[in-house]
Amino acid sequence: MLHSHLTTLNAVSLMLEAFQSEGLSSDELLLGSGISLTDLKRSDPRITTRQEMLVCANAVALRREIGLELGPRMHVSSYGMLGYALLSSATLGDALRLALHYPALLGTLFHLRLIEDGDTIWFSASDYREHPQLAAFNAELCVGSLKVICDDLLGRPLPLLGARFAYPQPDYHERYRQTFSCPLHFDAIDNAFAFSADWLPQPLPLADAVTHRAMAERCRQQNLEFTGRQAWLGRIRQLLLQQLDAPPGLEDLARQMNCSSRTLRRHLQEMGSSYQQLLDELRFERAKQLLSEDQMPIYRIAELLGFSETASFRHAFLRWSGVAPSHFRI
């Protein structure tokens, strides 16, 4: 699915750290994502969710249970200004409701809810519609991070009453008990963990009303900027996707966006992207779709993606994926 969500480099950075001890080259994990080691040092660490997912797919191909390791390492400090707003909230319930108000700042691919079930609260992550092959990984990452955020806010582990996941039990299911010390269920209606409702009014040790008001306002402003950039980036992607067979140059694209090429270039740079990178991402996604759907000749796919020569498409696909188009199709 092509999308224009923005997220941060936090998960990618943690992923690189997790594999460093195994001597794996960072280039192997970053392959095809358009992210460089230099990007990890940027002051504005925003990337597209698609870039993040390409790195995640590379990681899952090497170690399928990596989500269980990364989730608990995504502490509340990984969420920037929102993290400070959560920490300074009055109660756990106040903090969690604030988090649900700003899903864009959480960078989640799920619909998050607090579901009341008598004296029990389920913190639920549902409606995942992105990459099916990464469903388990993303659920492990999301739910594991939500659990450690609760622990961070309270300053102690939140006792769990149960956890459930919306996919079949994986063969490494015993690893789940290292993160979720509670009864586990698979093939459920959503991904969620349960805790006593008595914890919602629990005062937080770092609560501070003055700091919280300031951080909450910063979150509101950041969310407006973040969602505005998402909409703007989505419009660019839509225009490029409609013209893949004859992509407009930067100047033409800027005219279609009713701005100057200089403005377009600057905005893309601020989002850690570029015209060529966006075009490559869309071409790569469409190429994989066409290669998987039927036996359309590779020269025809090259034409549909705006390549004047089949050889140019072959070289580009090899650079994006690490394999030739013919090998990808096997």
UniProtKB/TrEMBL annotation:
Name of one Pfam family that matches: HTH_18
Gene Ontology MF terms in the entry: DNA-binding transcription factor activity; transcription cis-regulatory region binding
Domain HTH araC/xylS-type: 234-330
Keywords: DNA-binding, Transcription, Transcription regulation
Any one GO cellular component localisation term in the record: cytosol
Gene3D superfamilies: Homeodomain-like
Matches recorded under InterPro entries: AraC-type_N, Homeodomain-like_sf, HTH_AraC
SUPFAM superfamilies: Homeodomain-like
PROSITE patterns named among the record's database cross-references: HTH_ARAC_FAMILY_2
Entry superkingdom: Bacteria
Protein name, as recorded: AraC family transcriptional regulator
Classification lineage: Bacteria, Pseudomonadati, Pseudomonadota, Gammaproteobacteria, Pseudomonadales
